[in-house]
């Protein structure tokens, strides 16, 4: 029934953030016209968490080895914005996008669904 998911990141400097996803993260892409890049993402999964506050949505890039991913991104000029947080269910950090916002990175230590 569904063929994929489409994630939208809103940015105050979309051109620079697109270049970061293309050049630093290294995602393959298509040009939908006029430099409007649409990126191929790795396999995805979705989780629904309870909240007492306002509902919100989050986007994380998942990796098998967070330390190796950070080393590769650092070689390409990415700035890590948070120390790696260790939790029983995973390891978390983030890198800065050129627009100033953060792109969270996540190494899950729990079973994952994206390879089903």
UniProtKB/TrEMBL annotation:
Gene3D superfamilies: 2,3-Dihydroxybiphenyl 1,2-Dioxygenase, domain 1. Residues 3-108 form the VOC domain. Keywords: Dioxygenase, Oxidoreductase. SUPFAM superfamilies: Glyoxalase/Bleomycin resistance protein/Dihydroxybiphenyl dioxygenase. GO terms for molecular function: dioxygenase activity. The keyword Phosphoprotein does not apply. InterPro entries: Glyas_Bleomycin-R_OHBP_Dase, Glyas_Fos-R_dOase_dom, VOC_core. The keyword Oxidoreductase applies. This is Extradiol dioxygenase. It comes from Streptomyces luteolus. The lineage of its organism: Bacteria, Bacillati, Actinomycetota, Actinomycetes, Kitasatosporales.
